[in-house]
From TrEMBL:
This is DUF2080 family transposase-associated protein. The lineage of its organism: Archaea, Methanobacteriati, Methanobacteriota, Stenosarchaea group, Halobacteria.
Amino acid sequence: MDRHEIEGHEVIAGTAKATGNGAHVLVPKDWRGADVKVVRTSEPTDE
């Protein structure tokens, strides 16, 4: 596993959920319009 350092304001933990041909992660509504980075912290599963 690589180590990454990111400066930011808040951190949330979530699970990527299947949608169409990809996946999405929900974030709080008040994050709309903000720059966001997503970091995968585990191996994907075939769900």
